[in-house]
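Friendly challenge for the regulars: who can give me the structure tokens for this chain first? No prize, just bragging rights.
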Amino acid sequence: MDAEPSIATYLGLDLSTQQLKAVVVDDDLAVLHETSVQFDNDLPEFRTYGGFLRNVEDPHVVLVPPLMWVKALDIILDKLRVCDVDFSKVKAISGCAQQHGTVYWSKGSRGRLQRLDPIKFLHEQFATSFSVTYSPVWLDSSTSKECSVLEEIVGGPHKLAEITGSRAYERFSGPQIAKIARTKPGTYCNTERISLVSNFLASLFLGDYAPIDWSDGSGMNLLNIHTKDWDDTLLETCALGLREKLGKPVSSHNDIGPISPYFVERFGFNEECRVIAFTGDNPSSLAGMRLKQGDIACSLGTSDTLFLWLNEPKITTDGHIFCNPIDDQAYMALLCFKNGSLTRERIQNEAAQGCWRIFNELLDSTPRGNFGNFALYFDTQEILPFVIGNYRYNKANDEISRYSSKEVEVRALIEGQFVAKRAHAEDFGFVIGPNTRIVVTGGTSTNKAILQVLADVFNSPVYISETTNSAMMGAAYRAKYGLLRDKCKFDEIVCCLPELTFVCQPYDDAESIYKPMTIRYRKIMDQILKKRSEQKHI
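First reply, four minutes later:
Bragging rights claimed.
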């Protein structure tokens, strides 16, 4: 006799820059309900544009009122209730949020969290709970001074990256906290607890201060990614008493406690519903795309992004290493390339009359390796590497101003973009193995001709992830995993989901062509960077 199907459901949330999204999935992780709150449209009283406020006097300062996020939670739970969501069936909740933002709880806020009145909205009860009324978020770039100090105190950017997984970044939480402590010492003194956006949201559900998880904590320039604990030198450099204000960090799939009685009484949640640690949106996307050891996730959009599952990362000062949100012994790398689809569209307009069909025909009409022609196109200042401009080379490695054929131009663009990604992935310790899969998302994921080049360059099969909103879905998957992690592995939790869609596999000669091109790319970049350095000193 078949066992009765489980009625358990799981709630996942994603507090991104522009909206708060929520999804309810059943025990097989199929979506039952999904909704969102758009900050600009649904909460116009906060006067955000794009979900944030930019300081008129200093455009480097970008802030968000945390009370807006609280009110968004009020609205989204009411939306789910109107959709007839049975909250009593929710066994676990998890979530994610934009990385690097910081929330400053004023003294007495913990007691307020613990004694919430179920008759009132959340936002009514937290109106005076934040010592910093406007939280700095990831778009804020006003912390250059603090970044320099953090790097200097440990011996330079590479040393800081060895400890925390990244050199000092202006958008990171450590420099943000240091700036608050330096410029507003009284406000900092009146701060009882400092949260990231992710564990701030978790705190509302927990009815107490939720801990920062290891993966989101990796984006602060404060957490030692090897010991999984705060680095005392960095803490002391930022501010006095910071360890107590941050609390003890925990594993990203930790069960941090039962849901607050507020939600039991107001919405009908089961008092046994568990809250699983919330994390950053990037780590949650890794879970949402169901990456396994040896996989690469490649998002091909306005910017191109690589997520890498790493066991032993190499440390560089470009890109980021985070603690892995699924496996406590592993890591993930995040590499962002600014020149993505907009650069591809420019060449499409110039060489293919703005038509992707013609572009793909041109791409397919040239052989792998492009007769030895190789090019790099950086329309805007690139992140990896820190370069701008177009660089075209012929078979003899001479730099030239243009190619004589459109076919060569098109293939040079696509091969150059993907060879660069492979080189930087390898620099972070990624090793292409026999079981490596490339999981692709983003607008360009529908273009099979381009994906074939990706498969060839990485000598690995390419699959498409049909999952939209991967960060939000990753939160729902992690809710179930956090509840059952003592009994099941993450792979076993998500095995009920449809298989990834296979698109293409590399040709047999791909590695013999593109491995040497990856070596060539590094040599070319050394020449470009050396030339730029010499020009600066003239």
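The two ends are 82 Å apart (CA to CA). The chain has 21 helices and 24 strands. Your move, everyone else.
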